[in-house]
Design goal:
Length: 560
């Protein structure tokens, strides 16, 4: 057995190592500075405390973006030096964010060990490559992102760090081959266990959904399907699940080979960046010659996001979570006993609220970022939740889950078409959405992102928007001067959240202008960018009249 020693290395703090909405995200060249990653990792170990680190089993993997392999080797050596007992690595360093959450919660090692945390290496939907983004975040023993109490502590530690620990004499571990390697350190044995990236996750999905009925749909000649992984880590799961387990054709997979630079693209599953899929689904600017598939979906780099499309039809994420919640009990075996409650992030449209009211379900509105859902789920208060930013999930894990969302939609389609795969016309994605609007009304919704603007200017703009809130008369005068056909602002505030489980308070979570007719304008600064600032503007308007739910949303929202 190879022996290693523990070497303390002197270091000095870096500015700006504050974890954002979902971990620390910076340009690769920033992460590559000597000690930059090391400082953050040691600050995390120190924030967790020795009792959570010494002897622990931790997962390290990510979406496979550029610099991941180097980072994994560094974290392995630092974990060894900090007396971690074993590190689990997905083969080739690949694990989707939802798969990491599943591995923490479900996987049992050869020796009966269980993981209590994970470093996830991803910058999610941000581009990858030597000149693009890298990211790292820590997830806890429940499989969810570290809460603010921990991320604040990590940040404090990064400001005062003086040394970190790293193993000397520990060689790079081959992470391309499944198997266990053991080393001997001053405090005993240290193992690195490289395992199959997909099997735990596939097993979990099979315990949630009725794979047989989805397979019947996917292999029916009437149904056509397309999945775009945008060269992110979802590709490693898509082939296993959609093709090998569910019988979809290999040709239904687009960009399903994970790449370090996502093929040069922006791995963000929306109408702007998932160009190839959008064109295939008949939503592109130029008319496609082939008949588009019935169903299409895409994922982001780390496979926690999803975009759901029907033939020439886009499902907004806010509608998607509402529709999944409305149909879950009938269509998905995991929920057959009923939903414990539902939740959405504040800027997400109120489509889910209407379903909750209708079905008499507990309902929660939380700040942006998945970490806020975890407490509710751990307390048994929430089963299904979602964000407008293409994130949907449930309490099967503590992260949003891109492939889960696709399986949920396929389950709903399979359920609606269960007696219908013969001759009749298929119930389509568009039919399901229209039926939903007819029952619950429609929330017209759109989001504008003003990316990479000057940080100082963005802060000033936000401060101005807060200041304006002190006089609604003034606000309404400004609005009426621009558009007389808009209802009055009756309420304006900054969203503040008190966690109903632990009582913690999160302030300044978005600036809201609420109109008399239920419309909303929300402004937020993004917490996931790596440079400058991004201002997000969310626009929403509710329409209950079934004769008016079929409008084009850009047109319906134009006055707002
Ligand atoms: C964005 C989204 C937010 C999401 C977060 C992480 O954050 O708005 O809803 O939870 O990204 O998603 P922000 O602060 O930039 O608005 V991911 O797929 O990066 O893990
Ligand atoms: Co993501």
């Amino acid at each position: 057995m190879v022996m290693f020693k523990v070497a303390p290395v002197e270091t000095t703090p870096f500015d700006g190592q504050k974890p954002g909405t979902s971990g620390l995200r910076k340009k690769v060249k920033v992460f590559k500075q000597p000690n930059y990653l090391e400082n953050f990792v040691q600050s995390t170990f120190n924030a967790l405390g020795a009792d959570k680190v010494r002897g622990a089993t931790l997962v390290v993997s990510g979406d496979g973006r550029y610099y991941s392999k180097d980072a994994i080797q560094i974290i392995i050596k630092m974990a060894a030096a900090n007396a971690v007992r074993r590190i689990w690595v997905g083969q080739n360093g690949l694990l989707s964010t939802p798969a990491v959450s599943a591995v923490i919660r479900e996987r049992v090692g050869h020796d009966g060990s269980k993981a209590t945390g994970a470093f996830i290496l991803t910058a999610s939907h941000n581009p990858g490559g030597p000149h693009e983004d890298f990211g790292i975040k820590y997830n806890m023993e429940n499989g969810g992102p570290a809460p603010e109490a921990i991320t604040d502590k990590i940040f404090e530690n990064t400001k005062t760090i003086k040394e970190y620990l790293i193993a000397e004499g520990l060689p790079d571990v081959d992470i391309s081959t499944i198997g266990l390697t053991s080393f001997a350190g001053p405090e005993g044995q240290f193992d690195v266990d490289v395992f199959d990236s997909a099997s735990d996750y596939v097993k979990l999905m099979k315990s949630i959904f009725d794979f047989q009925s989805i397979q019947k749909l996917l292999t029916s000649p009437k149904f056509t399907f397309c999945y775009d992984a945008l060269h992110g880590v979802a590709g490693a799961y898509a082939k296993r699940i959609f093709v090998e387990e569910l019988g979809a054709k290999e040709s239904s997979l687009l960009n399903c080979v994970p790449k370090e630079d996502f093929g040069g693209g922006h791995p963000d599953p929306n109408l702007t960046y998932a160009k190839e899929l959008v064109a295939r689904m008949g939503l592109g600017k130029t008319k496609s010659e082939q008949e588009p598939p019935e169903f299409g979906a895409a994922a982001d780099g780390d496979a926690d996001r999803n975009m759901i499309l029907g033939k020439r039809f886009f499902v907004t994420p806010s509608d998607s979570v509402a529709i999944i919640a409305a149909n879950a009990v009938q269509a998905i075996p995991y929920f057959s006993g009923g939903l414990k409650g539902v939740a959405r992030s504040m800027p997400t449209s109120a489509a889910l609220d209407v379903v909750a009211k209708h079905l008499n379900l507990k309902f929660f509105e939380v700040p942006t970022g998945w970490k806020f859902f975890g407490n509710l789920m751990d307390a048994g208060m929430c089963s299904v939740c979602g964000e407008e930013s293409f994130g949907t999930g449930s309490d099967h894990i503590r992260e949003k889950d891109g492939i889960w969302a696709v399986l949920a939609w396929l389950s709903i389609l399979a359920y609606k078409n269960k007696d219908n795969l013969g001759e009749e016309k298929l119930v389509t994605v568009e039919d399901i959405v229209h039926q939903h609007w007819a029952t619950y009304g429609r929330h017209y919704y759109t989001r504008y992102d003003y990316e990479n603007v000057d940080s100082g200017g963005a802060k000033e703009l936000m401060a101005h928007l807060v200041k304006l809130q002190s006089s609604l008369d003034e606000v309404n005068k400004i609005i009426k001067g621009t558009r007389s056909d808009i209802s009055n602002v009756v309420n304006a505030d900054e969203f503040e959240y008190k966690d109903p489980v632990d009582g913690s308070i999160s302030k300044h979570q978005g600036i809201r202008y609420l109109f008399e007719d239920g419309s909303r304008l929300v402004f937020r600064l993004s917490g996931t960018g790596s440079e400058g600032a991004t201002i997000r503007l969310y626009i929403e308007q509710y329409e209950k009249d079934p004769s008016k739910t079929g409008r084009d949303s850009q047109e319906a929202l134009a006055p707002l």
